Amino acid sequence: MSVTDLLLQHTGGADLEVSASIEVRDCEDLHDATCGVAIANSRGQRVAFFHTLYQSGLRFRGSKAPQTLRCTIPSLPLVPASYYVELVISNEDKPIEKVERADRLDVVFRDVFGTGKVPNPSQGYMVLPCEWERI
Question: Is residue 128 domain-resident?
Fold first, then answer.
């Protein structure tokens, strides 16, 4: 069993939409498989996790022929920093292959809220919208 050809790309749009394509091959022995994609900071701490079962209810069977799994993340509001992608393939809910630092994602400053400011990684990893008011 092998995981090959991770393609991570910014797909455009106002939000940071990201798509990850994962090619899985030579895995005919898998009959109840799942795939996870984790985004980790430079210290290896997971800041986001995407999973075929949790978000889409998807399990798959392995095959000799290559299969491509695509995970589209409609918004990934990370603060500017370098992040790493980790891939995990499980069968019957038991991890069987893990690829740490399979790819790198560099997030650069973008004025998403029009304030000219964005938190730094020591303040948190996600920049989520909210509204403040003094009452």
Answer: no
